[in-house]
Specification:
Length: 225
């Protein structure tokens, strides 16, 4: 190796040493600055969807006011819903009606405690009133002539109940096209509906299911116009 080669190799090795040492010093400075800017685990504050709703500016949580405030008005912008604002029945004709089953019968409540269908549209036992049960879509079906309520017992049989506070009288009203359906609140987990068979007798809850003709009722308010 001549003198020129020795000079070049010596300069290369010295420059490599300087760059390596400079890189190590730079890494130390970068790591120290990164560690100083990183928050400790004890001070991290992450919003997880509960608690203060102002932490989520894009999707604020909607809350129900209960007990309701002194002002019964609902403000959708504020994100609160007052259950007292639920409206029941037809705004012009009220909640009085007849319920005409798709099987061809009017639902009727009789003073002997029986609930069945009748083909007589003028039968006063078929004049009903839909009464709110306190929660949205929760209703009671009251016979205007007898002042008794449609109820369902633990065997799924319909009967007329005089106690308006009985849990057996509460039904969940839903819509199936142009028809109404009434699911027993006490047996909602079993899917038991109010139903009238083609014979006019009530249909037991275990025999009913969503979409059947027997559980579809068309509200008729012509008698109360």
């Amino acid at each position: 190796m001549n003198n020129y080669d020795k000079t070049v190799s010596g300069s290369d090795s010295s420059s490599d040493d300087d760059s390596v040492s400079g890189l190590e010093e730079g890494d130390g400075v970068a790591n120290s600055s990164l560690n100083s800017s990183r928050p400790s685990r004890g001070k991290r504050d992450v919003w997880c969807g509960v608690g203060n709703t102002s932490r989520s500016p894009i999707f604020p949580l909607r809350r129900v006011v209960w007990p309701p405030t002194s002002n019964p008005q609902t403000s959708f912008r504020s994100g609160y819903v007052d259950p007292r604002n639920a409206r029941w029945g037809n705004p012009k004709l009220g909640s009085k009606m007849q319920l005409f089953s798709q099987t061809g019968y009017y639902l009727a409540v009789y003073p002997d405690g029986k609930v069945r269908g009748t083909r007589d549209a003028a039968d006063p036992h078929s004049f009903l009133e839909i009464v709110s049960a306190g929660l949205p879509e929760h209703v009671r079906i009251k016979g205007l002539l007898t002042n008794m309520y449609v109820a369902m017992n633990k065997k799924g049989r319909l009967y007329a109940e005089s106690d308006p506070n009985s849990p057996a009288t509460v039904f969940v009203e839903s819509f199936q096209g142009s028809y109404n359906a009434y699911l027993s609140r006490a047996f909602a987990h079993l899917g038991w509906y109010l139903g009238i068979k083609k014979s006019g007798k009530f249909k037991k809850g275990p025999k009913t299911k969503y979409g059947q003709k027997a559980v579809k009722f068309l509200p008729n308010r012509s008698r109360f116009e």
